[in-house]
Specification:
The chain is α+β, with helices and mostly antiparallel strands and 198 residues long. The chain has one domain. It has three helices and six strands. It has a four-stranded antiparallel sheet, with helices on both faces. Strands 5-6 form a two-stranded antiparallel sheet. The N and C termini lie far apart (83 Å). The mean pLDDT is 79.
């Protein structure tokens, strides 16, 4: 093999290696972007689910005069898992599951146990429903009595404490407010409040 053939062979293999490295970098970039997009997509589907849940609760309260209650008489999402009720209020059972929730066999959302039909109005700041605390990293989607959904930024331990407060019937924890700057929402009805404050 002559010197020029050896150079061509070396150049060929260097070109193949360069193409291989470029393709590997491109695949790595695509995979990392896909991984980043998944949580954002799950949060947006969760928001749509909570809005559909709101409409189902409003429809239920319009026809029954109250918000859904479970067999134990407490406010509960379980009533909306009944197929007859689902067809009555027009809710698809898949909206009761957050796409980020990996625990099978239960709805992904909790209703405020102190919720009343009168809380479902245009000027309401009462929490209607919210994510299971571990569904999304960094916070939770919260459905409010006016039908809006907000992503509340709270660390996991504070999300769990907040859920305990709401579920225990603490009316202060079951309110939301807009921050002074207008771009952030806060649980507990006041800016800067954290669930560990109570």
């Amino acid at each position: 093999m002559g010197e020029s053939e050896a150079r061509r062979s070396t150049a060929f293999w260097l070109l193949v290696a360069l193409i291989f490295v470029s393709l590997a970098a491109l695949v790595g970039l695509i995979v990392s972007q896909t991984c980043r997009a998944k949580p954002a997509h799950q949060r947006s589907v969760c928001v749509a689910n909570l809005r559909a849940l709101y409409h189902a609760i409003v429809a239920y309260s319009s026809s029954h005069g109250d918000v859904p209650h479970g067999k134990d008489g407490k406010v509960s999402i379980d009533r909306l898992t009944d197929p007859d009720v689902q067809s009555e209020v027009g809710i698809d059972p898949t909206v009761l599951r957050c796409p980020a929730d990996t625990t099978p066999g239960r709805p992904s959302y909790l209703l405020n146990p102190s919720l009343k039909a009168s809380d479902l109005r245009a000027d309401s700041t009462t929490v209607v429903a919210f994510d299971i605390p571990t569904n999304h990293s960094g916070g939770a989607n919260v459905l409010v009595g006016d039908g809006s959904v907000h992503f509340m930024v709270l660390p996991l331990d504070q999300r769990q404490r907040w859920v305990q407060l709401v579920v225990s019937g603490d009316s202060r924890a079951a309110q939301v407010c807009r921050g002074d700057a207008g771009d952030r929402w806060y649980v507990g009805g006041k800016e800067g409040w954290t669930p560990s404050d109570w």
